[in-house]
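Please check both lines for our workbook:

___
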Amino acid sequence: MSRRERKATESAGKPTKLDPNLISDDTQKPGAVIPVHQEVIDLSNEDITSSGTEGQQARKEIQDLFEEFEEPIKNFLEGNRERFTAIIASSFETMEQKVEDVLKSQCEQRQKLYQDYSLQIMNLSRKLSMDADQVKKHAEKLSSMFKEQRKFIHQTLILQKKRMEEFKSLCEQYLEKLETLRDSRGNSVAEELRHLIATLEIKLLMVDGQQESAAAAQQSLLDLLFS
């Protein structure tokens, strides 16, 4: 502790000095009773003067204390300014390098991520394009097949209709010929029957004639025998 600090401490710790001209300590107290035969002394001006002097002395001591510490602090700051500047510069440089490294790393990661996803998206887009082309080709092929199938079905229906008409015509022709054959066969049978009946009639007439001839011959023989 410096001399001035010790002086300020001792001044602050000293008790207030009493005026030796006063009769007793009771006059130093505001509530003290003054005897009637004693003269009253006004101490207000002296107290104010004493208080102002002590305040000025205290301010001077504080100012001296600041002046005493100002030079060492200034020298300390001046001596360590370069070191502080170097430390701060190094800290800022380190921080700047770390920030730059972080930004560079993030930039590289973003670039790598962009390249990876760009490659994947390009591959996916290429595959989608190929799939779309294949779907288009299959759709065109299916459309062509559908047209061919529709054309084939149309031709088949026309052919089936034509064949059904031919079948119907054949059936009608068969029925007509069958009817004609049946009619012609019936006429032929009737003609044969008529011819057979005529033949039988002739034969019957011949038999009758023979019977009559036999009867006539028999009668002639009988007549000859009984004549």
